[in-house]
Design brief:
The protein is of the alpha+beta class. The chain is built from six helices and 23 strands. A six-stranded antiparallel β-barrel has the order 5-14-17-16-15-18. Strands 6-13-11-8 form a four-stranded antiparallel β-sheet, with no helix packed on it. The protein has a four-stranded antiparallel β-sheet with strand order 10-9-7-12. It is elongated.
Length: 416
């Protein structure tokens, strides 16, 4: 009897717990049903269920006030503010001057792989690294010519050394003028590239002289010429394969150093006063929706093109993660000195979905309408909207991601 009493007490002790679990499950089911827009029941603003009605329009989510509170949804009013006007111009990512170079065949011959293997496209290479060999077999007549070729190569090496000294002097001069604010940054970079090109030409001439000297001393037999990387970077193109017969000066490898990239844009003549000297810009690319790349002004052509009435300006950005690829196209946003009214919302209201930016606009009766917008730029946690919203509307400043997730789940359920 005592055992029976104990068993009954235990059952009575478990009943409240079981009731709580059942109530919690029921509450979760109700909340989930309210969040899923496809549920049959609809609710009024006081949280009371209405009779089943037609399904919601596409892109609409409906929540009761209690569900909005539980999901952390908070509204913000779209403001109209006087903000700096931005000009968006088409732009293309490119490697800076001197950071793209070709490795060419020095003579006609057969291309050979070096001992460490033939380089693959996309490989990282260092300046001066051996990329390939070109093997040339000389006939009797060609061997006679080797002596003359050696003299020519030695003269070319002396000439290249003279050009290198001149390039170095010009580079030092440009640096001094830049520090004094006289020369533009672009001139310094062009002169630095000229020094690197002159050094590469000198090394190539010396290498060619050594090869001719070796061939002349050895008499008969093949001679091998080295093909080396002209700069440090990645192989953007491999234009020949081992065993292929190549011609003198044929481009075998294209090397691009994209540690720093440029973006050039053509500023219309009417906008030059407003943005022609903007020190900063933001690059936006279709490959990275919602992401902007900060860039700094490095140069301009200084001349308005007569045919297009535009001034070309160049901006640079560090690219250590190599996210920016030469050849990408997008928009360069230049901030104007003038101001104009624009719709402004908290950055937290933005949701990036399927390659576009959207917000959720409060439409009354607990409904939120998904609205695509065009973002001009983001600054200080506020998004300046170019199109899609107007002042006075209310948007979900918090919980927008949850609304998007709910809408997505509802779409999947409707398909099922």
């Amino acid at each position: 009897m005592k055992g029976l009493q104990t068993s009954g007490a235990a059952r009575r002790g478990r009943r409240p717990a079981a009731a709580l679990l059942a109530a919690g499950a029921l509450l979760g089911t109700v909340l989930a049903c309210g969040l899923m827009t496809g549920c049959a029941a609809r609710h009024d603003d006081d949280g009371h269920a209405d009779s089943a009605g037609p399904s919601l329009p596409p892109g609409v989510v409906q929540l009761t006030p209690a569900q909005q509170s539980a999901a952390g949804v908070r509204l913000a009013t779209v403001e109209s503010r006087q903000v700096p006007r931005q000009v968006a111009l088409p732009a293309q990512v490119e490697a800076p001057t001197g950071d793209s170079a070709s490795a060419r065949a020095p003579v006609m011959g057969y291309l050979l792989a070096p001992a460490h293997g033939f380089p693959q496209i996309g490989s990282r290479v260092r300046r001066g690294q051996l990329l390939a060999l070109v093997q040339q077999a000389y006939s009797g007549t060609q061997r006679v010519q080797l002596g003359a070729n050696l003299s020519t190569a030695q003269a070319a090496a002396r000439s290249a050394a003279a050009r290198l000294r001149q390039a170095r002097e010009q580079f030092r001069r440009s640096e001094r003028l830049y520090e004094q604010g006289i020369a533009p940054r672009k001139q310094v970079e062009l002169d630095r590239a000229a020094v690197e090109e002159a050094e590469a030409a000198r090394q190539a001439a010396l290498e060619q002289g050594r090869e001719y000297r070796s061939a002349a001393a050895g008499g008969a037999g093949p001679s091998r010429f080295a093909v080396r990387a002209p700069i440090t970077g990645r192989l953007a193109a491999v234009n020949a394969a081992p065993g292929e017969l190549v011609q003198p000066q044929q481009s075998l490898f294209q090397v691009v150093n994209a540690a720093v990239v440029w973006a050039a844009a053509a500023v219309p003549e009417g906008e030059i006063a407003a943005v022609g000297r903007a020190p900063r810009a933001v690059l936006r690319l279709a490959a990275y929706p919602g992401r902007g790349f900060a860039m700094r002004r490095v140069a301009s052509t200084g001349v308005v093109t007569a045919a297009t009435h535009t001034l070309t300006v160049i901006y640079a950005a560090s690219n250590r993660d190599e996210a920016l690829k030469p050849g990408m196209v997008g928009s360069l946003l230049l901030q104007s000195t003038s101001r104009a009214p624009a719709a402004v919302v908290p950055q937290s209201a933005l949701v990036y979905e399927a390659g576009q930016t959207v917000v959720f606009v409060a439409a009354g009766k607990g409904r939120f309408q998904q609205q695509p917008v065009t973002v001009a730029y983001i600054s200080g946690g506020r998004a300046v909207i170019a199109s899609g919203l107007h002042a006075g509307q209310k948007v979900a400043a918090r919980g927008a991601g949850m609304l998007e997730s709910t809408l997505h789940r509802s779409s999947i359920r409707d398909i099922d």
